[in-house]
Amino acid sequence: xxxxxxxxxxxxxxxxxxxxxxFGKFDYIGDPCNTLRIFNELEVDELFxxxxxxxxxxxxxxxxxxxxISDECFMPLVYGGGITSLDFAKRVFDSGFEKxxxxxxxxxxxxxxxxxxxxxxxxxxxxxxxxKKSLMGKLSVxxxxxxxxxxxxxxxxxxxxxxxxxxxxLLTSIDREGTWSGFDLDLVCKVAEVVDxxxxxxxxxxxxxxxxxxxxxxxxxxxxxxxxxxYQKKDMGVLxxxxxxxxxxxxx
Length: 252
Description:
The protein has 252 residues and is of the alpha/beta class. It has helices at 32-41, 54-57, 63-72, 86-94, 104-108, 111-120, 154-164, 185-192, 208-217, 227-230, 245-251; strands at residues 5-13, 16-20, 26-30, 47-51, 77-80, 99-102, 125-133, 139-143, 148-150, 168-173, 199-202, 222-225. Helices cover 35% and strands 25% of the residues.
């Protein structure tokens, strides 16, 4: 068992898996159920599935697909996208998922964090925070797949999320996402130092050294991987994979 979690993040769009770059251009990765079967065989400990269209276009989660996916999986699953009410969260949990990730809906209705946490426990609610830098270097929180900017810093929003009852923070750098260029260590530090929750760093991982850096230098409790687990290497074709656990043990 690894001392710190390394978690694949899969992006769902129109029933298929895709991989984006800076929340923009995307590539088709494959069928969700087939891909999840591979991660089962790779003995992944946990997995995120994020629907990147649901909140942006105001669509419900695809509950039938979530049930199909959970039937294929034996690891704990986290779902995010389009969860705008306690009832929708209940349906996600009933579909077989262990946690929900709230992003756009939490910004629009912060009390939803508390409502779901009170019903299912804080450990079941992850606050997903997407962050982008301005030309002047100011950090801002974005929602709706990076389309809507909010006048709040990621550190303040993370601290508020903790007060509202979330159990973890998924922190994504939009500027680094899909670039293979390494994590934004400064961003992760700013958030990790103001909360007493696990912070999952996401966006930019391209090699094992990046994982070692963010876990060792930023206060992150876990790492979420996108490109590294769906491509052979940078600028190469699709290959669903997971880093060898013996190599991971050396960096975590």
